Amino acid sequence: MASPAASEVYVIDASDRHRAVEALWREMDLPSLDGKAVAVKANFNSDDPFPATTHPGMLEAIFSEVGAAGARSIVLGERSGMGETARVLENRGAAAVAARAGAEVVVLDSLPPAGWEAIPPDDLHWKRGFLAARLFLEADAVIETCCLKTHRFGGHVSLSLKNMVGAVAEKDPGDGYNYMAELHASPHQRRMVAEINGSLPCAVAILDATEGFSTGGPERGNRIAPNVILASTDRVALDAAGIALLRHYQTTAEVMRGRIFAMDTIARAAELGVGVTSAQDMRLVALDPGSKDLVLDMRRILDESA
């Protein structure tokens, strides 16, 4: 049973992304975007097609809803970890989608020092803290969209929490310190991912699980096709649901093993107040009849891992 103050994760059939995102938008209790500056963080880590990166249709659907909500401006900010960001955005269709929607594109790699906010290392696993893009810190609202993937380079999963790594500088533009080298070499990598989210806001996160990778990842792996989209105002709840979905399809040993809320990234993010602290504090809501059986199995997996 979920608590009365449970965070809700909505699940809907993904056959029509535009209709699905529109329905999700109506269900969620979102703050008004009228006259607001909105920053969008999508998933363009590499120059590979969906489900490695955000599907152009998903990006288009989100821009459409944000625009219809009266946003004053929309900015897509991105840093690719496995490719040249500008080229990735061009090749994956993101630049064209943004142009049609009247959205600005900011390649975070090219930001000057003033474009970054230094997050101090106090009580973090980062040796000297990290640099977060001011774009996301200063926006009136941040909208995130991520993919359903495992992560073979130490992250275990690449969902909404991991996706925010792309909002952090690879290197310090002042002295060249490599934050990503530190992250990927650290035994605390997954906790460090959570700590990024402790400093970066997010009004709503949308997980496109039309397809996904149940092994491998983040740029290639064993493809699965859940054909659903998940959304929540709570990134911890969303990722816990995403992990339950991966377990439904039989995923890697690291992701299958143990309590979901004991996994490093989930546990650390919950500890930092990013979202709920247990499976009992989240509620899965199927928005169409076809998603109900899948949601029931995800709920069972969450409960059994509690």
Concise description?
This protein is of the alpha/beta class and 306 residues long. It is 34% helix and 23% strand. The protein is built from twelve helices and twelve strands.
Explain the overall architecture:
- There is one protein chain.
- The chain has a single domain, classed as LarA, N-terminal domain (Rossmann fold).
- It is 34% helix and 23% strand.
- It contains 12 helices and 12 strands.
- The strands form 2 sheets. Strands 1, 2, 3, 4, 7, 8, 9, 10, 11 and 12 form a 10-stranded mixed sheet that branches.
- A hairpin with a 4-residue loop joins strand 7 and strand 8 (156-158).
- Helix 9 crosses helix 12.
- The longest helix has 14 residues, at 235-248.
- The mean pLDDT is 96.
- Pfam families: DUF362.
- InterPro entries: DUF362.
Descriptive keywords:
306 residues, alpha/beta, Rossmann fold, 10-stranded mixed β-sheet, 12 helices, DUF362 domain-containing protein, DUF362
Q: What is the CA–CA distance across the termini? A: 11 Å
Can you tell me the CATH topology? Rossmann fold
Largest sheet, strands/sense/barrel: 10 strands, mixed
State the total count of DSSP E strands.
12
Share in β-strands: 15-25%
Give the count of helical stretches: 12
SSE class = alpha/beta
Runs with pLDDT <50, length 5+?
none
Helix content: 25-40%
The name of the CATH architecture is 3-Layer(aba) Sandwich
CA radius of gyration = 18 Å
Q: Mean pLDDT across all residues, rounded?
A: 96
Q: What does the overall shape look like?
A: globular
